[in-house]
Design goal:
The complex is a heterotrimer.
Chain A: E1 4-13, E2 16-25, E3 31-35, H1 42-50, E4 57-62, E5 65-66, E6 77-80, H2 92-102, H3 107-120, H4 136-148, E7 154-158, H5 166-183, E8 186-191, H6 194-200, E9 203-208, E10 211-216, H7 218-223, H8 228-233, E11 240-244, E12 247-251, E13 257-258, E14 269-280, E15 284-291, E16 299-305, E17 317-322, E18 328-331, E19 337-338
Parallel strand pairs in A: 3-8, 3-9, 6-7, 7-8
Antiparallel strand pairs in A: 1-2, 1-4, 4-5, 9-10, 11-12, 12-18, 13-17, 14-15, 14-17, 15-16, 18-19
Helix pairs in contact in A: 2-3, 2-4, 3-4
Chain B: H1 2-6, H2 22-52, H3 69-76, H4 78-110, H5 116-128, H6 131-141, H7 148-155, H8 178-206, H9 210-218, H10 223-252, H11 255-260, H12 272-282, H13 286-294, H14 296-316
Helix pairs in contact in B: 2-13, 3-13, 4-8, 4-10, 5-8, 8-10, 10-14, 12-13
Chain C: H1 6-22, E1 43-49, H2 54-71, E2 75-81, H3 86-96, E3 102-105, H4 120-130, H5 135-139, E4 142-143, E5 148-149, E6 152-157, E7 161-164, H6 165-170, H7 180-194, H8 206-218, H9 235-251, H10 255-258, H11 263-269, E8 275-277, H12 280-289, H13 291-294, E9 297-300, E10 312-313, E11 316-321, H14 329-341, H15 343-349, E12 355-356, H16 379-388, H17 408-411, E13 412-413, H18 423-430, H19 433-442, H20 447-467
Parallel strand pairs in C: 1-2, 1-3, 10-13
Antiparallel strand pairs in C: 3-11, 4-5, 6-11, 6-12, 7-8, 7-9
Classes of the chains: A alpha+beta, B mainly alpha, C alpha/beta.
Chain lengths: 343, 317, 475
């Protein structure tokens, strides 16, 4: 178990700034998720923590020790790659044993540890197989077992669930989360999938264009996005944004409901909502449309839970409202969240 | 077509044409290859077998079958036995050498550096030159008077002065001393095969997913362990292909030995292909020549079978 | 075999190698030649080697054949190939039953006897018109067992010793070696005192083959006797082999084990050989490339053995065959006679590389394309005059250097001596048995053992060809 500290780290590939001036501090045993679109620098950051890439400037500190220029093997980290990177010519047993053999452990100790790790992930019966004879889920477990077997102080995962099908992914997510809580190893997890990020992370680090936009718990990220990027990247459909003077007004689709369902005690805002299009998704409905001319006809989305049993049709205009506490304001020029609108 | 339309059976349909008969078309397409292979390889091969069982000579092509007489005679011939041994020796030693060298070279070429394409191009050059031309170049390198190798050795004081490490004589006589002559042949074969082997190894190395190597690095394996436990096993099928290719090239090649030594000194570098030529063409005993050359066949067939198996295995991994 | 120029050597080596490369899997693919429609035409197709002396082909042979064709109302098509290609090319044509009407070999093509015409009538007619054919030529084209002339020999090449006069002068032997023993005595001295070895090949190539035969004959031994019995394993052979081991130790270096056909040539031109066995072409090359060496190169006749015998092996023996498939037999035979008739031009344009088989042939009248030799009536007169006063000598070069080679036909003989050339002798030659026997001894093997080993191989070859009815003798 260890704390990871990233001090003003930048990474340049030639002219391209992959990571720029990133600072980050984890707590011990924390599950940290790096979230962002592809090319935002999250994987590069992870690889710098692992020691596969060297930062152009700045320092990586693990457990109080500066490891910036140290090779991976002395950092006591373990990593699970997107492709799992299992050694195809080795059996599962040998795959899991490999990091132990690399540190010169005795044969008997290796056997105990491999069996322990395999048991932990329920793959004891697969030890004699080669990776190509395994299913996607089994491979993922082998990769995890190989990473965990040496009891690392930091656990790094690079989109480990992206190769699984949707159903498997959900259960794997749950298992991963439980497993991490049990062993309580500081974990950095890279994903572009916000659902995964929300479900797994103690804290989420949202990145864009090489920099961190916001660090916070899933709730903070969702409820109080630091800027318009986070507001629109997190949440599906994203937060509605409307221009209002030099401000942008934002609200989540699920807070934009027919006026009769909104508590207006604190002074909600009502809009005429001209519905153009509807999507029925079973548990909910997505309603697309435009709000009035006063707001320069902005396109917005409403997400109606099944409990909102109101008949709505495309082509008609309805009165929709947002509770005041659900409104967020952003500076139009900088995109940063501001308290101005609350006044 | 119109007849069909008249009796109404093909309304709305076109009659399946020649092009739609996949089976026939496939046969037609593959026919040239089969004709080529049987004409260029099959017939001569059958003929070689017939010859080896007959007493045909270059001057008398009438076939009289005499059974296994030729095989009995060549097996009793000490020169044949040396040639057989040398054929295998040259093939295995030079190809092993090539595998090791090409591995090193390919690893170096995987790295990024300025002028890499030029280096790769230069390494490929020996492959593009006709083998006879290259070998004649080497003949000069090994010349008993003008050898540039000897010249270098002399100018750095290893040769040609009393007490020099390699002797006081002015030349090493590369092709005149049996051991050096064998080494010379091996070296030319290695030089010749190195480009292809390097390219094959490069392909093998670049086919290893980068994440796998990084995983090994994170797992704590670098340098030697990574080479031995990860990259070599992963490229083994491709290395085997390079190895088998090399074997076939050296087994069947007669140019190198013919140009460098013609089997000398005293047959110390004689190989089956050159011995076939001296016996069968220059000596006129076509039948024995055929018998000698057929001795390569089991070895080559074995190597070819292995190659096909290896090729299949690479597909799976 | 000697080469005309360094450039020529490389190219030939290259062609040789290239041909050889195509004979990858044994020999079978060579046999397949596309069959052309067998049109009976007034076209005579001749296949000849590319002469070592380039001007021979360019300035004489190609023109001569063209003009002869015109005069005889026939199109003559001449193809030149490298000497190494001759055996495989001939085999291919014979096997295909299609190809050239005349094929020129430069060694006895005795193994082709079953596939070629008996040329007794041509020889008979030639002897009637041009006088006696030299016996070495007859023995290189006639099979006494079957009484057939399997080829027709119009000429040959002398294989003298070439020595560096300045070196031998210093050693106290200004006119060069006379006996094989001189090579050890004075050659050894030259190597020790002047640091220059002599070069008699002990390698798997043809000059080494010729040298080995010359040595054996001069030591009164041989592979076969006159009746084609194998007599190799004899006291005299052992003595010759022991001699070669001594010669190697005293006067040579290991280069000779590695030599190719051009090596002795190069060594001489580079000034790194005190004595070699080669035709005049080595000297001719030196004239063109290193005149100061050429001026120092002199010649000796065949060296004498312990009992005075001195033999040299013909360096090249020209042999034309007419394959049985030829449809222009009469025309081909006519051409052969014309070739003998005009051999004066062959001699001149080869820069005296070619010597005639018919010394008594009259010189045709008129402008022969070379400065007329006063009083010369027969080829013999021309030969003597040119060897006394070499028309190709460099300005300022000593006169009469070639005089000692005037009577070369007396000490020159054929592969197979004292018997005829035959396929067994040919295969022994092609598989380098004699040079290897000598090399084995030079490398330390006991002479008796080296000879016994060679005899084993030779006997197997003779037995095999005897079974095919082409070689006489019983042992």
């Amino acid at each position: 178990m260890a704390r990871i500290e990233i001090r003003d780290v930048s990474k340049l590939f030639g002219e391209v700034r992959a990571v720029e001036g990133v600072n980050l501090l984890s707590t011990e045993g924390e599950f940290l998720v790096l979230l962002g679109p592809s090319g935002c620098g999250k994987t590069t950051l992870l690889r710098m923590i692992a020691g596969i890439e060297e930062p152009t400037s700045g320092d990586i500190v693990i457990d109080g020790q500066v490891v910036t220029h140290l090779p991976p093997r002395v950092r006591n980290i373990a990593m699970v790659f997107q492709s799992y990177a299992l050694y195809p010519h080795m059996t599962v047993y040998k795959n899991i044993a490999f990091p132990l053999r690399a540190r010169g452990m005795g044969r008997a100790t290796i056997k105990d540890k491999v069996e322990w790790a395999a048991g932990m992930f329920g793959i004891g019966h697969l030890l004699d197989r080669k990776p190509r004879a395994l299913s996607g889920g089994e491979r993922q477990r082998v990769a995890l077992a190989r990473a965990m077997v040496r009891e690392p102080s930091v656990f790094l995962l690079d989109e480990p669930l992206s190769n699984l099908d949707a159903i498997l992914r959900a259960s794997a997510r749950e298992e991963l989360r439980q497993f991490q809580k049990r062993v309580a190893v500081t974990t950095v997890y890279v994903t572009h999938d916000q659902v995964e990020a929300m479900g797994l992370g103690d804290r989420i680090v949202v990145m864009s264009k090489g920099s961190i936009r916001q660090v916070g718990t899933p709730a903070e990220i969702y409820q109080w996005p630091a800027d318009t990027f986070v507001a629109t990247f997190v949440g599906s459909p994203p937060m509605n944004l409307m221009e209002q003077g030099d401000l942008l007004v934002g609200f989540r689709p699920e807070t934009f409901l027919p006026a009769e369902f909104v508590e207006v005690r604190d002074g909600g805002v009502t809009y005429p909502f001209e519905v153009t299009y509807l999507e029925y998704l079973g548990a909910e409905r997505l309603v697309y449309g435009n709000v009035g001319e006063k707001f320069q006809a902005r396109h917005v989305v409403s997400r109606l839970p099944g409990s909102v049993d109101v008949s709505i049709e495309a082509g008609s205009t309805y009165s929709f409202a947002v509770s005041r506490r659900d409104l967020r304001y952003f500076d139009r020029a900088s995109g940063l969240r501001t308290d101005k609108g609350l006044a | 077509m119109s007849g069909w339309q008249e009796d109404g059976t093909t309304v709305g349909l076109t009659r399946p044409g020649f092009r739609d008969q996949a089976g026939l078309l496939a046969k037609l397409m593959i026919a040239p290859a089969i004709i080529y292979i049987s004409a260029m390889i099959g017939i001569p091969f059958v003929l070689a077998i017939l010859y080896s069982l007959s007493d045909v000579t270059t001057g008398d092509p009438t076939l009289r079958l005499i059974g296994l007489q030729n095989f009995r005679e060549i097996l009793a011939d000490p020169v044949f036995r040396i040639s057989l041994k040398n054929t295998f020796f040259f093939a295995f030693v030079s190809v092993t050498l090539v595998i090791i060298l090409s591995r090193i070279l390919a690893t170096a070429l995987m790295a990024d550096f300025r002028g890499k394409w030029l280096v790769r191009f230069l390494i490929m050059l020996p492959w593009t030159a006709p083998i006879s031309l290259g070998t004649i170049g080497w003949l000069w390198m090994y010349d008993s008077i003008f050898s540039p190798i000897d010249w270098i050795l002399r100018s750095i004081g290893l040769l040609g002065t009393p007490g020099a490490l390699l002797g006081a004589q002015p030349n090493l006589y590369w092709l005149g001393e049996p051991k050096l002559a064998m080494a010379s042949v091996v070296l030319v074969h290695a030089w010749r095969l190195l480009p292809l082997a390097t390219v094959i190894q490069l392909a093998g190395l670049s086919s290893i997913p980068r994440e796998l190597l990084e995983a090994a690095e994170v797992d704590g394996a670098k340098g030697w362990r990574r080479t031995v436990e990860i990259t070599i096993p992963l490229t083994l099928p491709i290395i085997s292909i390079a190895f088998l290719f090399g074997l076939i090239f050296t087994f069947t090649d007669m140019t190198v030995v013919y140009v460098l030594t013609r089997g000398g000194p005293v047959h110390m570098t004689q190989v089956l292909s050159t011995w076939t030529f001296f016996k069968g063409i220059e000596g006129g005993d076509l039948a024995q020549g055929a018998a000698i050359s057929l001795f390569l066949f089991p070895a080559l067939a074995g190597v070819a079978a292995l190659m096909l198996r290896m090729a299949r295995r690479t597909e799976v991994v | 075999m000697a080469r005309a120029s360094k450039k020529g050597m490389t190219r030939r080596e290259f062609v040789k190698a290239a041909t050889v490369g195509t004979v990858a899997m044994g020999v079978a693919p060579e046999i397949f030649l596309p069959r052309q429609s067998a049109a009976v035409s007034r076209e005579l197709k001749i296949l000849v080697w590319s002469h070592f002396v380039p001007r021979f082909d360019k300035e004489w042979f190609d023109n001569f054949t063209k003009n002869w064709g015109k005069a005889n109302d026939v199109t003559v098509k001449v193809d030149h190939i490298g000497l190494a290609e001759i055996p495989s090319r001939t085999a291919a044509e014979v096997s295909a039953g299609q190809g050239h009407d005349l094929i020129e070999w430069i060694s006895p093509p005795s193994q082709f006897e079953p596939s070629v015409l008996d040329l007794s009538d041509v020889v008979k007619e030639a002897e009637k018109r041009f006088g006696k054919q030299h016996p070495l030529c007859r023995r290189s084209s006639y099979n006494p067992l079957t009484k057939k002339y399997y080829s027709f020999c119009p000429g040959w090449t002398i294989d003298p010793g070439n020595y560096r006069k300045s070196l031998w002068e210093k050693a106290g032997k200004p006119n060069g070696p006379e006996t094989w023993e001189d090579l050890i005595t004075f050659g050894g001295k030259i190597k020790k005192e002047q640091g220059i070895q002599l070069g008699i090949g002990l390698s798997q190539e043809i000059d080494s083959n010729m040298a080995a035969r010359a040595l054996l004959w001069s030591f009164d031994s041989s592979i076969q006797d006159a009746k084609e019995n194998v007599v190799l394993n004899s006291k005299n052979t052992v003595a010759a082999v022991e001699y070669m081991a001594r010669l190697f130790k005293e006067a040579m270096v290991p280069e000779v084990f590695a030599w190719t056909a051009v090596s002795n040539n190069q060594a001489l031109i580079a000034g790194r050989a005190a004595y070699i066995l080669n035709s005049v072409s080595a000297y001719r090359s030196a004239q063109k490339e290193v005149p100061e060496i050429a001026k120092d190169v002199y010649f000796t006749p065949a060296l004498k053995g312990p009992r005075g015998a001195n033999w040299s092996c013909e360096h090249v023996i020209y042999n034309y065959i007419i394959p049985k498939y030829s449809k222009n037999v009469d025309m081909a035979k006519k051409f052969l006679l014309a070739l003998v008739e005009n051999y004066d031009q062959a001699m001149y344009s080869s820069e005296l590389y070619n010597s005639p088989a018919f010394f008594d042939a009259p010189i045709p009248s008129g402008d022969r394309g070379y400065p007329a030799v006063k009083g010369a009536k027969k080829l013999r007169d021309l030969h003597n005059s040119w060897f006394d006063d070499d028309p190709f000598a460099l300005p300022g070069e000593a006169k009469g250097k070639l005089s000692v080679l005037k009577d070369a036909e007396k000490w020159s003989t054929n592969v197979g001596h004292p018997g005829p050339a035959n396929p067994a002798e040919g295969e022994v030659f092609a598989t380098f048995i004699l040079p290897n026997m000598l090399a084995n001894a030079a490398r330390g093997m006991k002479a008796e053992e080296a000879v016994a080993q060679a005899e084993l191989l030779v006997k197997a070859i003779f037995a095999k060809w005897r079974k095919k009815g082409l070689v006489g003798g019983t042992k």
